[in-house]
Design goal:
Elements lengths: L16 H6 L4 E6 L2 E6 L8 E8 L3 H9 L1 H7 L3 E10 L2 E8 L8 E11 L5 E7 L11 E2 L2 E10 L5 E10 L6 H30 L2
Length: 208
């Protein structure tokens, strides 16, 4: 399984890749344990886009493996209930993901197209985009139809990697404003904090 996402997260908050690229007025909203979460308003949307940034003491290859192992990825990705591979085609992967959001939000599902780009400097970028019509609707779940984002892993010195998790989505259905506001901070913060813990434990085990 060459490529995955993970991340993913699910989710929340977006209008497409073009809008994601255009939303660059980021403001620091929360900082904790070395992890920074930035938010920006999205024109025409009620939901903010988030960007979480953290330094993780692990190689890019370790983080890549933790994303491509979907069973493990769903455990560290905030609000993930299920994640499974639908198709892998070289640098492109399609993943099905369901969410488990706090009450009163109804569960969501989504199909994500994940495109992976490997940089000459050892960096890795995974671009996420919702492909809602890839699978028929599932009874009891609200399909997220608009989502775009990315995971970026940039190697630094001494085996450390700067990880960026960015997402913008329209969650579909009704989401209370207090829950939406909490999600855009908790999703990157919890995902990055948990990924860091798992990756750094893995790095210790892999050390001769």
């Amino acid at each position: 399984m060459k490529t995955l996402l993970s991340v993913i997260a699910l989710t929340t908050a977006c209008l497409g890749t073009a809008t994601l690229a255009a939303a660059e007025n980021w403001k620091l909203a929360h900082e904790e344990d070395g992890i920074k979460v930035y938010l920006t308003q999205v024109p025409g949307s009620r939901y903010q886009s988030f960007r979480g940034v953290a330094d993780i003491k692990a190689e890019v290859s370790t983080l890549r493996d933790l994303q491509e192992n979907l069973r493990v990825a769903c455990k560290w990705l905030y609000a993930c209930a299920e994640m499974r591979l639908l198709k892998n085609d070289g640098d492109d992967t399609w993943v099905y993901l369901t969410t488990e959001l706090p009450w009163p939000a109804a569960p969501r599902d989504m199909v994500l197209h994940v495109h992976t780009e490997q940089g000459d400097d050892g960096s890795l970028v995974r671009r996420l985009e919702a492909t809602p019509d890839y699978l028929p609707p599932v009874t009891g779940l609200i399909r997220v139809r608009q989502l775009s984002g990315l995971w970026q892993m940039r190697p630094k010195t001494d085996g450390e990697t700067e990880v960026t998790y960015q997402l913008q989505a329209e969650p579909a259905g009704d989401i209370p404003s207090w829950l939406a506001n909490r999600f855009v901070v908790d999703a990157p913060m919890v995902s990055l904090k948990t990924l860091r813990a798992v990756a750094e434990r893995q790095g210790v085990r892999d050390t001769p």
